[in-house]
């Protein structure tokens, strides 16, 4: 399953939106619409289409962690393959990006290392870069030698879940592999500052969105519309 948002005018650009492990709630469908308004045909992936009832799901009662543990990297990759094929075949998108958050941020990094997807760029907000996390999804730091897409990695300096040492390990691995990348950390910003606590961290969130815009524009300079 996915939520689809079409650009008013085709540009050849597409965006996969990969939610955190809570799944495709209101914030992410709004983000899909925001990307579409900017000229990118968008799909917001629902990781739990195999195990849960269709959205909308009540956040206070939906056992998202249980469903996250049931996912597999094989199925997540299959969904990404299906989504990119759909955007290319049905929407005519030729230049594809992904943006993910937490669980989805980790996945977004990995999509840049997948030859079957041919991503133009991958963006991850506070995606776990090292070690195991919830399922059998590989650690992005272990995939840097296979990366083919440029990477934008965004973290919060006050993230209690992802220590600065893990961020630096990822940064060093990207540099060592000579991957085109930008790693940005916002001092004082916690985990999920962009999606869950935007109002309390508006300055960091607005700056991060500017980073996303600049990254996408740099990778698609010839066809990218005005934001």
Please give a structural write-up.
The chain is 33% helix and 18% strand. The protein has six helices and seven strands. A seven-stranded mixed β-sheet has the order 1-3-2-4-5-6-7, with helices on both faces. The longest helix is centred in the last third of the chain and has 18 residues. The protein is globular.
Supply the key terms.
single chain, seven-stranded mixed sheet, about 20% strand, 6 helices, alpha/beta, globular, about 230 residues
What secondary-structure arrangement, pairings included, does this model have?
Layout: E1 2-5, E2 13-18, H1 26-37, E3 40-45, H2 64-70, H3 73-89, E4 95-101, H4 103-111, E5 121-125, E6 151-156, H5 164-176, E7 181-186, H6 202-219
Parallel strand pairs: 2-3, 2-4, 4-5, 5-6, 6-7
Antiparallel strand pairs: 1-3
Please outline what is shown here.
With about 230 residues, this protein is α/β, with parallel strands linked by helices.
């Amino acid at each position: 399953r996915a939520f689809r948002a079409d650009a008013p005018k085709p540009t050849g650009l597409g965006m996969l939106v990969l939610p955190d492990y809570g799944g495709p709630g209101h914030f992410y469908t709004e983000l899909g619409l925001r990307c579409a308004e900017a000229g990118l045909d968008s799909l917001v992936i629902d990781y739990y289409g195999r195990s849960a009832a269709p959205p909308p799901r009540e956040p206070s009662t939906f056992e998202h962690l249980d469903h996250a543990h049931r996912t597999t990297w094989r199925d997540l990759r299959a969904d990404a393959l299906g989504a990119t094929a759909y955007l290319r075949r049905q929407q005519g998108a030729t230049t594809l990006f992904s943006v993910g958050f937490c669980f989805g941020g980790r996945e977004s990094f990995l999509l840049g290392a997948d030859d079957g997807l041919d991503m133009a760029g991958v963006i991850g907000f506070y995606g776990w870069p090292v070690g195991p996390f919830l399922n059998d999804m590989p650690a992005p730091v272990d995939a840097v030698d296979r990366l083919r897409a440029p990477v934008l990695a965004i973290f919060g300096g006050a993230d209690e879940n992802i220590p600065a040492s893990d961020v630096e390990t990822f940064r060093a691995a990207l540099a060592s592999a000579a991957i085109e990348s930008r790693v940005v950390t916002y001092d004082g910003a916690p985990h999920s500052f962009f999606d869950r606590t935007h109002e309390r961290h508006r300055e960091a969130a607005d700056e991060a969105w500017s980073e996303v815009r600049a990254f996408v524009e740099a990778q698609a300079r010839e066809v990218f519309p005005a934001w």
